[in-house]
Amino acid sequence: MVPEVDTLLVLAVDASGSIDADEFRLQREGYAEALTHPAVLSAIASRPRGAVAVAMVEWGSPGGAATVVDFLRVADPASARILAEAVLAAPRSPQSWNAIGDALDHCARMLLAAPFRATEKVIDLSGDGPDLRSLRPATVARDDAVAAGIQVNALAVAAAGQVTRMGEPLAETYRREVIGGPGSFVVTAEDRRDIARALRAKLIREIA
Fold this sequence. Notes:
The protein is of the alpha/beta class. It has 7 helices and 6 strands; from the N terminus they run βααββααβαβαβα. The protein has a single domain (about 5-205), classed as Rossmann fold (3-Layer(aba) Sandwich), CATH 3.40.50.410.
């Protein structure tokens, strides 16, 4: 019998060439901090089954998205710490830039083959730039994921006033090209030091 959780969540994290070693460390630490925060754990506990299953994927290279932490069940502080330790310990995957569509395809396949069952399936993609080199464009991958019952949300890591080459804020690009499904949304972090705060708010909204 497949164990049930309230939400299946894949964290799709930008590991492309635009992120140096210090920024990468800040990013990983921000995710670990958010995943163990009491407010996030309270949101999990408020759900009918009191549990979620979370995996982490790194993306960047066309066709090169990599699962760095497979699905782990989180239901209490101890299991959250196990997930956070796995996030911090996972080796960085080799990535170039910047294939969001291929990342969404990879995450959707994971969700549909997950070792847990949940009515809510979510891809939570973070990045500091738009889709540039996907084998399948982000909009196409997003639409296919939504058709399969998956919600796609995004975390735009972008300083205030920064615009993409399309001349718009990154959050607007993600709103148009990345997110999808009922209730989908974009949150903005000003830099990687702000990821823990932004992700914490995002996780609470996704879970609760």
